[in-house]
Structures are given as structure tokens and as C-alpha cells.
Amino acid sequence: MNADNTQCATPVRQHTPTSLPLPKAKGTMPVVDGILHADLLPPEITFELTAPIRAYREPYVGITADGAPAPGLYRLTDTGNRPTAAVDAADAYLDALMPFERTVARLPMNSPDWRLWTNAIPTWTPKGMRLERLTVTQRELALAVIEASLSREGFDLIRAAMQLNGALGELIDDYRDTLTEFTYWFTIFGDPTSGQPWGWQLMGHHIDVHCVFIGSQLVMAPVFLGAEPTSCDTGRYAGVHAFDDETGHGLTFRRSLTEQQESSFLLSRSISAPDPAGSWNGRHLAGAGSDNLILPAEGINGGELSADQQDLLLDLVRVYLRRLPALHAERKLEEVARHLDDTHFVWRGGHDDVCAFYYRIHSPILLVEYDNHPGVFLSNEEPARHHVHTIVREPGGNDYGKSLLAQHYATHHTPDSDH
């Protein structure tokens, strides 16, 4: 195991709530009632935060190496796993809404709003129902749709991220109309009971999940999940924590790589400022507004790894895939394993017990990014492990299930305004 003697520019102790930085000064961001008024921020930040609203109506291509999706990456098939529970849950949720609520709670399957999302706080009025504004019964029914669609681990992670958003509001005692457990917009797309493709989006601060059902297949991408902080041990959210495995398995794989291999995957030994790879929103590349990102693969590929290292890389991939129901997760892992020689890995930062870091796994059919950030609501100016962003994409044109949907419609029918 390779030992890294590189030190962080500003070492940070293990990130428990008792060692978190102080909150930033109160009321410094123009955030009111779940909406960020980005035009009141510095121009460079405004530009970054408004990328989704500028890009979401562009013709969709997908994340590619050169602007052209490779053919044959995704295939329409029958997994034998019908989403009956998710359909029933969605039907129950929609039935619990008033007719005027359903007009914004459910959008056509071909709505461009699939691609309108942000990991920050939205700078527009989102579609869908805000969970906080639903009755308790309606909200439980909405959450039941998410629970019925994912694995237990996937649902628990989403709920933990929601709760940590509420914990952040309590911790800093600010933005209490926005940093809450339920300031999230939930939208159903299509008609779940029609037998045709349908899906849902959950969108808000640090949470963007897109789940699409095409027959018995399920696509969950793009997914953005994060938290600041990643754990809480005081107040009503005491004991909530998230992203331990995304962090720990990432470190385990990184530590298995040798010094001789570093020239193939190590982009920098620190992500402390000044970091030319970073921006106000971190080092990740495939976030909101990046549906058509051109991203050539870089880093060490699976064929250059030892058998043990390959197993550890697949263990890390499994952390992200096990958010899916077991059958879908295992099928996807098998597909990733078949593409292992064309799967690349890069790392920025140290890999001791305190340094912040970034990594990217880039397979032809899966893109994963993990990034540690400076404080946004907390005052640490350097990236730290208590602020995590993760992204999962299906490159080559299958975010939002687009590739499979195109095959479905070509085989069965032309999509209309509702399907």
C-alpha cells in the first residue's frame, strides 16, 4: 500500500460536528423561500449558477468524448422486473392531490423540465410540488414513490441528505425558509398507470435524482447527492450521516494504487486553494447544465490494474450502483465490468486521514464524480471532507433514459405530448 506524505495546505481534523467551522456571517446570500436571486451575486458566480437555465433547452446529445455518442452502448431489454410497487405508489400520490395541484405535480414525459435542475438553490421557480407545502399525508405518499423506486440504501441516502439540509439550517440558524428537510420539488413525468415510460425528479439543494422507467428497465441518472455537513450529532437530526462509503471506498482504492502508477492517474497532490482545476462550485465537471459535456477519458484504465485493484475499483462502483434495486444494480455492475478495460480513473488531492480530494470514474456507460468543497454556509475557505458532492451520469446519451426511450419509441410508437 502506497503511503502519501503530502500534507494538506490547511490540515483539517476528522470532520465531526464538534469540529466544524463556524457559520459564515448571516444573511449574506440573496436566498428567500427556497429561491436564490442570482442576479444579486457577483457576475462570475451568477454565470455558474444559471448554467442550467441557459442549457436545458439545447438539443440533447449526452456526455461524450468527442460530441458524438458511441452506438450500441444501451439496449432495450426485458429484465422481468416490473415496477409495480412504484406505479402503485405514484398513482396513490397523484390521487391524493387536488386537481389544480396535479397540473404542476405531473408533467408530460417529453417535458424539457427533465433537464432543468441544480445542485445549488434554484434560481427559477421550479415545477412540481414542494414537499414542504404538501400535507403530511401527501408528503408521505410522495416519499413512498421514491422509496418504492430505489433500494433501501438509496432511499436512506436521499433521506439523510434531506435531513442534513435541515441540520445545516439549524446549525447556522439562518435561511430557515430554505435550509430545511423538505425544501425539495418532486415531479412525476408521464402517466405511471399507462404502461408507457414514466419517471420522476426530486430537485433541491444537494439533491437531484432522475428516475426513469422504460418497461422493466430503470435508469437513475443524472444523480447529484451531497451534504454540508455530512454528519450531525446535535439537535433533532442527531445521528444522521451520509457519504461514509463514497469517501471510505474511494480512499481504499486510491491507497491500493502504487507510486509507479501515479503518473497515470494523479492530476494533483492537493485541491487546496489556489487550485486551477476548481471553480466556485468545485472540481466536478458533469453537474447541472452539463448534459452535453465533451469529456475525453483520462487517467489509469482498468486494464492497467492488478486483479485486486480491479476488484477494489468495482467495489467503489458498487457503492454508487447499490442505490438502485438489487436486480438493476447487479445488471449495471456486470455491464461496467465488461467495459473495465475502457474505464478510467483520476484523483486529485491527498489520501491520508484528513486531506480533501476529488476522484472520477469514467466508463463508457457510467460516470462518477466525488468532490470535497470549501464551505458555502460554513466558513472554511479550503475544501474539507465534511462537504461532499457526488455525481452519477450515464454517458453516451442515456441520461434521463434518453437512449432507451428513443429505442422504445422507435419500436412501439411515436411519443405524444403525454408519453
From TrEMBL:
Query: Which branch of life, at top level?
Result: Bacteria
InterPro entries attached to this UniProt entry: DUF3500
Matching entries from Pfam families are given as: DUF3500
Q: Where is this region: Disordered?
A: 1-24
Q: Where is the composition biased (Polar residues)?
A: 1-19
Indicate what this protein is called per its UniProt record.
DUF3500 domain-containing protein
The protein's organism comes out as Streptomyces castrisilvae
